[in-house]
C-alpha cells in the first residue's frame, strides 16, 4: 500500500467507512482526487477544506458534511513557554481520550516535535508522570501523524520547517509497533510530509523482541533506549520492565541491532539525585557502553506529582559526565525546555485531569 492509500484508509475508517475502497466509492473519488486530498493535508498542511482549492467546492462540502475530518486530534490546551521556544499541546481524540505533543524551537536552527504513541502508558517507570497515571489505549497511526501535522502547520505559518520528530511523548512506541511504523511511513513519504528517516527517533523502555524486529526493518530511523540505570538492582527499582528484560538481555539486543544496522544507539539516562548519579553508576554505565557506537544522553529530571525523587544538581551532572568521558563514552546533557509549562512527558495531562480520572 502506498503512503497515500494508507492515509486515506486511516482517515476513511475514522469517518465510519470500511476503508479505502468504501471511501472512494462513497464520495465517487478517482485516484487523482485522492492524491490532491492527501497532498493538501500531508504536504501542504492545510488547516481546512476551504484551502484545498484543487478540489471542487461541492466535493469539499460533501467531505466535510460527511464527517471526513482533516484532523483526528483537536487541540484542547496549547501552552507556550515564557521564552517562546516550547509549545505544548493537549489534544482530544474522537473518543474523548487526551494525549500530549510538544514543539521545541531550538533557537531557530532545529525544530523538534515530540509526539505520543499511546494514551497513557502501562510501563510505570517511577519517575514518569505518564506511567504514574496508567494506560488508556493505543493510538492509531493517523492520530500519531496528526499530532505532527498540527505543529508542522504552526511552524509553516512562521516560515519554518520541522527538522526532527521524536517518539518521546506519552506511551511506549514499541508496545504499539505497527501503528508507530505506519506513522513513520506517513511522516517519511517524500510525496507527503517528507521528513527523512534520519530525522526521526523512536525511544523505547527496552522491549527486546521489538528491538530485534526494528533492526530487521532496514530503516534509518534512530533508536533511543531509556536505560536510566546500569544495574538490574537499580533499574528494577526505577523501571518495572527490567524484571522482564534485564540489563544484560537489553544490552545484548542493542549489540545485535548495532551489528545488523551499523547505526549509533542513543541511551537516555535521567539523572536522579542520590539514586543513579554516584561514581559507581558512572563506571558501571561506562562499562556497558564500552566498545560500541553508543551515545549517552544525560537528562535533567523534571519533577512529577507522585515520585519522591529529586534531580541531580548541575555540578554533579557535569562530574558524572566527566567520569563517562574519561571512559571514552560520548555524552550530551539534554537542555531542559518548557519547564514553566510542565512540558515533560505526561505532565500537562496530569495537571489538567483530576487524578481520579487519569487512573
Ligand atoms: N516509552 C518511551 C518513550 C516515552 S518518554 C521510553 O520509555 O523511552 C521519553 C523519555 O523521557 C524517556 O527516556 C523517559 O524515561 C523520559 N522521562 C520520563 N519521565 C521523565 C521525567 N520526569 N524527567 C525526565 N525525563 C523523563
From the 3D structure, determine the CATH topology of the largest domain.
TIM Barrel
Inertia-based shape: elongated
The main pleated sheet reads as: 10 strands, mixed
The H-level CATH homologous superfamily of the largest domain, spelled out, is: Aldolase class I
Poorly predicted spans: 354-359
Percent helix range: 25-40%
- Structure ligands: S-adenosyl-L-homocysteine
- In angstroms, what separates the terminal alpha carbons? 38 Å
| Biggest sheet: strand arrangement | 1-2-3-4-7-8-9-10-11-12
SSE pattern: HHHHEEEEEHEHEHEHEHHEHEHEHH
Which CATH top level class of the largest domain fits? Answer: Alpha Beta
Task: Tell me the Rg in angstroms.
Answer: 21 Å
**Proportion of beta-strand residues:** 15-25%
Q: Specify the number of helices.
A: 14
Per CATH, the architecture of the largest domain is Alpha-Beta Barrel
Which structural class matches the secondary elements?
Answer: alpha/beta
Kindly state the mean pLDDT as a whole number? 93
Count of domain modules: 2
Number of strands: 12
Amino acid at each position: 500500500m502506498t503512503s497515500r492509500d494508507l492515509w486515506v484508509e486511516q482517515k476513511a475508517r475514522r469517518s465510519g467507512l470500511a476503508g479505502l475502497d468504501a471511501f472512494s466509492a462513497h464520495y465517487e473519488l478517482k485516484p487523482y482526487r485522492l492524491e490532491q486530498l492527501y497532498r493538501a493535508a500531508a504536504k501542504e498542511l492545510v488547516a481546512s477544506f476551504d484551502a484545498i482549492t484543487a478540489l471542487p467546492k461541492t466535493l469539499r462540502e460533501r467531505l466535510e458534511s460527511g464527517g471526513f475530518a482533516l484532523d483526528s486530534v483537536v487541540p484542547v490546551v496549547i501552552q507556550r513557554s515564557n521564552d517562546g521556544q516550547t509549545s505544548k499541546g493537549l489534544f482530544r481524540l474522537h473518543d474523548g481520550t487526551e494525549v500530549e505533543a510538544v514543539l521545541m524551537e531550538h533557537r531557530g536552527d532545529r525544530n523538534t516535535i515530540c509526539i505520543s504513541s499511546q494514551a497513557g502508558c502501562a510501563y510505570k517507570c517511577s519517575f514518569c508522570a505518564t506511567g504514574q497515571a496508567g494506560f488508556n489505549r493505543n493510538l492509531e497511526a493517523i492520530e500519531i501523524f496528526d499530532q505532527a501535522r498540527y505543529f508542522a502547520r504552526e511552524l509553516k505559518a512562521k516560515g519554518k520547517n520541522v527538522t526532527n520528530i521524536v517518539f518521546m511523548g506519552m506511551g511506549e512506541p514499541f508496545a504499539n509497533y505497527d501503528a508507530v511504523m505506519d506513522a513513520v511511513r506517513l511522516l517519511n513519504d517524500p510525496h507527503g510530509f517528507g521528513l527523512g528517516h534520519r530525522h526521526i527517533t523512536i525511544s523505547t523502555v527496552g522491549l527486546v523482541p521489538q528491538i530485534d524486529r526494528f533492526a530487521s526493518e532496514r530503516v534509518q530511523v534512530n533508536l533511543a533506549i531509556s536505560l536510566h540505570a546500569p544495574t538490574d538492582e537499580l533499574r528494577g527499582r526505577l523501571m518495572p520492565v527490567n524484571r522482564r528484560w534485564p540489563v544484560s538481555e537489553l544490552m545484548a539486543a542493542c549489540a545485535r541491532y548495532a551489528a545488523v544496522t551499523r547505526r549509533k544507539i542513543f541511551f537516555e539516562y535521567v539523572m536522579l539525585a542520590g539514586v543513579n548519579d554516584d561514581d559507581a553508576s558512572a563506571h558501571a554505565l561506562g562499562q556497558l557502553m564500552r566498545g560500541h557506537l553508543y551515545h549517552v544522553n544525560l537528562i535533567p529530571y523534571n519533577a512529577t506529582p507522585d515520585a519522591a525523587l529529586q534531580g541531580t544538581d548541575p555540578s554533579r551532572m557535569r562530574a558524572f559526565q566527566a567520569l563517562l568521558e574519561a571512559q571514552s563514552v560520548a555524552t550530551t546533557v539534554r537542555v531542559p525546555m518548557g519547564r514553566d509549562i510542565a512540558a515533560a512527558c505526561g505532565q500537562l495531562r496530569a495537571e489538567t485531569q483530576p487524578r481520579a480520572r487519569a487512573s
